[in-house]
Design brief:
The protein has helices at 8-16, 21-37, 58-61, 69-75, 80-94, 102-118, 124-130, 135-147, 158-170, 174-186, 190-197, 219-227, 230-244, 297-321, 328-355, 378-393, and strands spanning 63-64, 67-68, 208-213, 250-256, 259-268, 271-281, 285-290, 358-365, 371-377. It has 394 residues and is α+β, with helices and mostly antiparallel strands. The protein has two domains: 8-200, no CATH class; 204-393, no CATH class. The chain has a seven-stranded antiparallel sheet, sandwiched between helices.
Length: 394
Amino acid sequence: MIGTTPDFAQLVEKLAAHEAIAPMSAAVREAAHAAALARQPKFPLLGDPELAEPEGDPDTAWNTDWGNVWQVLRTGAKSAEQVALVEALLALGDRDQFPSAPESELNTAALVVWLAAHTTCNAFEAFDAALGQGKAAFWQAVGRLVVDPQSGGVDFGQTEALIAAVALRHSASPTAKDVTENLRKELTDPVLFSVLAREPSASQAPALVGGLSPARKGPVVTAVMAVTLILALWHAARLIGRYAFAYRRPAKVVLSDRGLEVTYHTELLGKVLRERATLVPLSNLASVTREVRFARLGMYAGLVALVLGSYLGMGLFVDGVRVPGGSATLIGMAVLLIVLGLVIDFALSSLSDSVKGKCRLLVVPRKGRAVCIGALSTADADAVLGAVAEQVRV
């Protein structure tokens, strides 16, 4: 099942007492710094199978209640719990940097900010839980990135400054609140000032719970698949998998300050085959739309009319020339399958949700594949769309 993020205070406390905490946190720290240096946005969801084997037996010694750290680093995090495990170990591995030399503090804070802005690794809460007296130095370094983002790197800009500001605004640390108050007095950027002045609002958007659906196909692709009978066969296979083998893909969409977080897993016969988590930062969001009731009804009606018209015309032509060996019955069966494929495609992609008062949400990133989630509450989907629009304006 889709994991839930554990309490970071308990997570950090238990990991700190682990007998292999030193090599585990060092390995996570090295992997995170390498991902940030290479600007790898899929950390920690994408593992590194070429990692050098550490001393001892990590396959057993690095086991935790949230997964084996070595396997997570090699194959990637498969759940929210494993992402949290990486975040906590990163905080434990880098907590000695606070306090330290100002340059080292700034570099580590820049790492955390970049990861939060461009990957699913948002370690701010973990650092809050792992740092003791070093919290003041950490949040002051984060504050410097709000004022001067390019001090974190030549490619740092408004996005990273916004992420740093949001982290400060949402932190429960008294030091973070002090830094926030000081920044309000010196910031001239109205957007950053607004972020630091407003109350956290991401929690106002409800979590969307539905099922992962195939992204909408274009008219040309739909027509080609229908004419070649692939559409009918594809949906027949989906229906068999759904009702004979209990094939399911439950999904959850949550709007956070990092963007839209989509988690889903694949079930077969009641067993979970795999889990995935995808983050679409608002800076990488091309569009997010709720599909209207009976989406593309006109397109499907037009395709059905085209097929039927072609069949009737072909029938007259066949009757006229009577090619030996021709069979109007076979042509009719083919047309029936084409129409059936179009009707099933429309029913499964639009009609089934609309009749139940549900809708589909289509998330299209600027880079990467589109994600479509169906069987969603219309009211909740509209609330999320409104929250996205509000965050984009800010």
